[in-house]
Amino acid sequence: MQNYATFKDLEDTSVFITGGGSGIGASITEGFLSQGAKVAFVQRSDCDEFLSKVSSQYKYKPLFIKCDITRTDDLKNAIAHASKVNGGINVLINNAANDTRHTLEEMTSAEWDEAININLKPHFFSAQAVAPMMKSQGGGSIINFSSNSYLTGNAGLPAYVTSKAGITGLTRSLARELGPDGIRVNTLIPGWVLTERQLKLWANEKDLAVTMEKQCIKEHLMPNDLIDSALFLASNASRMMTGQALVVDGGVAVTG
């Protein structure tokens, strides 16, 4: 793993990540492990290769809990288990998502519900689960992963784009509600990150060229490009930032 910024206050903190064993999530997990944090993560699929890679490299071995985050009780139980093993959650990262392409014409009611249940609902209920422990500990940081697809209005995945827009609204509301308890809530908005899934399913030469044309920085985003931003939002370096959306997309979407 490359050298990233060091945030000494993250050492020994308890971090919970959804979808932390593959893609962007795996990079974020390893980023926090490199800080000496205690990381627990959930996802539906096994990740033996990733666990084998990182389990002996860092101060703490990650805690993997197999969990379908659309099952709210299972998600809350996973958070409770992680807090028993690693201590009360200091940092929550809602990363897991499913961006399977779909159209307005073809999508069914059940498929719509499934998209929201994966891409938005867990962000709310994981925050609900960690808020009491963060409050009792004097604060914490919640980082909700969104996508610049809603800023640019991408076609071809309307339910996904809708849920990603909803994440920003949820972040702003929770930041206002939880701020008096010292809990910060921010959104991290990546551009098109070339994970293995993206490269396998959708990263064709034409679309890659179109994206590169839109970017100010002429390099494709990789999963590791989100690590420093997540660490920053989790650390005391951003202690007076809340309710904000931090865009990391090479300059495609311009905010402000």
First-to-last CA distance: 33 Å
CATH homology superfamily: NAD(P)-binding Rossmann-like Domain
Q: What is the percentage of strand-forming residues?
A: 5-15%
Strand order of the largest sheet: 3-2-1-4-5-6-7
Rg from alpha-carbon coordinates: 17 Å
CATH architectural designation: 3-Layer(aba) Sandwich
How many domains is the backbone divided into?
1
Oligomer classification: single chain
The third-level CATH topology is Rossmann fold
What is the overall shape? Answer: globular
Give unreliable regions as ranges: none
Keywords: Oxidoreductase
Pfam families: adh_short_C2
Protein name: 3-oxoacyl-ACP reductase
InterPro entries: NAD(P)-bd_dom_sf, Sc_DH/Rdtase_CS, SDR_fam
Description:
InterPro entries: NAD(P)-bd_dom_sf, Sc_DH/Rdtase_CS, SDR_fam. It comes from Candidatus Pseudothioglobus singularis PS1. This is 3-oxoacyl-ACP reductase. The relative contact order is 0.15. The model has no long low-confidence stretch (mean pLDDT 95). This protein has a single domain (11-193, 223-248), classed as Rossmann fold, CATH 3.40.50.720. It is built from 10 helices and 7 strands. The radius of gyration is 17 Å and the shape is globular. It has 256 residues and is an alpha/beta fold. The protein is 43% helix and 14% strand. Helix 3 runs parallel beside helix 5. It has a 7-stranded parallel beta sheet, with helices on both faces.
List the main descriptive attributes of the protein structure presented here.
256 residues; single chain; NAD(P)-bd_dom_sf; alpha/beta; 3-oxoacyl-ACP reductase; Rossmann fold; SDR_fam
